[in-house]
Amino acid sequence: GHGIELAPVSGYPALLQQMLGKGYWVKNFGVSGCTLLKHGDMPYVNEMAWKDAQAFNPDIVVIKLGTNDSKPQNWKYASEFKQDLQQMITTLCPALAQTAKKGKKAKSAPVKPQIYLCTPIPALKTSWNINDEIIANEIIPIQQEVARQYGLQLIDFHTLFANDGDKMQADGIHPDDKGVRRIAEIVAAELKK
Q: How far apart are CA 160 and CA 119, in angstroms?
């Protein structure tokens, strides 16, 4: 909810809760500015939110990380991105580690929690040195590969937001009120499939 007024009420998780209704309990464990990379400048796995997310014992997890990893000071650890993503996924769902160890390519993950992996939305500007070329050409292919490997659903926000520059804040990185609503609509539609 970076830059969204009253984010606890009008941010993407709150809107998602409204769209999904009573059959779901949406909790927000996001931390603005975090990296997936453990050697990044603000690793998500070092945040209390990561511990809280695991303790919540969710049925469904939506992971949207990667934007801040594209910064030069973080992407110098690019060779660790896939491993760090795999470790996050298998920490959340240890049963998926067994699938990977057996060398099977999972077609679907009928295990708890069900994990949805999201690509970053396009970075329309280089604010904070965020680099859309790295996102599109390096980060997203790794996310796609890991999603295939573990049988995860992939929500391709990068493609879905390609023509939505009008739904972005002035920084060109964060979605505005219309953008967070669009994110919630896309995630809600995926979860209801």
A: 10
pTM, whole model, 2 decimals?
0.91
**For 15-60, what is each residue's pLDDT tens digit?**
999 999 999 999 999 999 999 999 999 999 999 999 999 999 999 9
Half-sphere exposure of residue 167, counting CA atoms within 13 Å on the CB side? 16
| Strand pairing report for 60-64 and 114-118 | parallel
Contact status, residue 89 vs residue 143, Cβ threshold 8 Å: no
Hey, what are 25's tokens? 């309990």
- Across the chain, mean pLDDT equals 91
Spell 93-118 as b/e; 16+ CB within 10 A means b. beebeebbeeeeebeebebebbbbbb
CA geometry: angle at 62 spanning 109 and 85, to 5°? 75
Rounded Cα gap, residues 177 and 12, in angstroms: 9
- What string of H, E and C letters represents the secondary structure of 63-117? EECCCHHHCHHHHCCHHHHHHHHHHHHHHHCHHHHHHHHCCCCCCCCCCCCEEEE
pLDDT class of 110 with cuts at 50, 70, 90: low
Looking at residue 97, its pLDDT comes to: 86
